[in-house]
Write a structure and sequence with these properties.
The chain has about 325 residues and is mainly β. About 5% of the residues lie in helices and about 45% in strands. It has one helix spanning about 5-15; strands at about 30-35, 45-50, 55-60, 65-70, 75-80, 85-95, 95-100, 105, 110, 115-120, 130-135, 140-150, 155-160, 165-170, 175-180, 195-200, 205-210, 215-220, 230-235, 245, 250-255, 260-265, 270-275, 285-295, 295-305, 320-325. The two termini are about 25 Å apart.
Length: about 325
């Protein structure tokens, strides 16, 4: 997910932000599944295939990659034209994924409004088949996305982090419009334009992080993806990026400059699941997704190697995917 890249600003934010310091989940183990060779790499989004392979998008280059967690080998699947970055990713149907691509300045993480296109990538064949699903010229800075199946036609919901809104896109027809817009989704004025960021659906409820607003929210949805009730703040007071979501609404939220993943229960109880401010375990955590490794449930976490906010002010590393055992 998108994050700041101004170190002086991060220094201010790290000073201002507070994170609940509840007990760590002490039985977790962290291991690196794959790490790129170059500092400056930035993994943005993640999806896990039915066969267990991991798909990742990258802010630093317009590419989609696949990683085999058993062999720890990675391969480039596709390079998207007319873009500098890939953003959100989600599965539309078995083996077919939606991927967002657009122009993002890596130095500032400021996106070029009107540059974003939603693609489909069909992985059911030996060679991936990519095609444009829909360009969204009104989009300002697209980020996380999720598939919503709420009793009507399936809809692709897409966060627009600068606009402070959620787009709904019908993957069958290409029709799109704004489904949700709320002040909680807008960026904080005077800070980098990063509002609503990670989004996930459980049943007919949408959960989302809002980065500079420092709120994790949920809202019941109508069949068409519009709000069916008031927006509820589940947890607040910490920077939030991407998230993985359990069916009961328990969220595992990446905190990017804080180098952690937080566990947030449906009642809002918040605890540190893995990492800490001075740790390199999940340095610059950007997104997360559940998977299974040899039959055991794990949490995969992506990073940008603390590119936005170096650990202890000095340490950065190449972007990586790590595996965290669940407890």
């Amino acid at each position: 997910m998108l994050g700041f890249s101004s170190i002086p600003l991060w220094g201010l934010l790290v000073f201002l932000l507070t994170i609940p310091q509840s007990a760590l989940c002490t039985s977790t183990t962290v291991s690196t599944i794959f790490q790129f060779p170059n500092i400056g790499s930035w993994i943005e989004g993640i999806a896990v295939r039915e066969n267990g392979d991991i798909l990742i998008t990258r802010t630093d280059t317009p590419e989609l990659w696949s990683i085999n967690p058993l062999t720890k080998q990675a391969s480039l699947l596709y390079t998207f034209p007319n873009a500098t970055s890939t953003v959100g990713i989600t599965e539309l149907s078995p083996g077919i994924y939606a991927v967002g691509a657009g122009i993002v300045d890596l130095a500032t993480t400021v996106a070029t409004a009107g540059s974003f296109v939603i693609w489909t990538v069909d992985l059911r064949f030996l060679t991936p088949r990519a095609s444009v699903l829909k360009a969204i010229p009104e989009g300002q800075s697209l980020s996380g996305m999720t598939l919503y199946e709420g009793g009507g036609p399936p809809l692709l919901l897409i966060a627009d982090t600068k606009k402070g809104a959620v787009w709904r896109l019908d993957p069958r027809t290409g029709a799109y419009s704004v489904a949700l817009s709320d002040s909680s989704m807008l960026p904080v004025e005077g800070l980098p334009p990063i509002g609503i960021n990670g989004i996930k659906v459980s049943g007919r409820t949408l959960y989302y992080t809002s980065s500079t607003k420092q709120v994790f929210c949920r809202v019941a949805l109508n069949t068409d993806g519009s709000a069916a009730g008031p927006i509820e703040v589940v947890a607040s007071g910490f920077f939030q990026d991407g998230l993985a979501l359990k069916p009961d609404g328990t969220a595992y939220i990446t905190t990017h400059p804080r180098n952690t993943v937080l566990k947030v229960t449906p009642s809002g109880e918040t605890s540190v699941f893995v990492g800490n401010l001075n740790s390199t375990a999940v340095a610059g955590s950007t997104d997360a997704q559940f998977g299974f490794y040899w039959g055991q449930e794990v949490l995969y976490v992506t990073t940008n190697g603390a590119l936005s906010a170096p650990v202890n002010g000095t340490f950065t590393e190449p972007a990586k995917v790590v595996m965290v055992t669940m407890c």
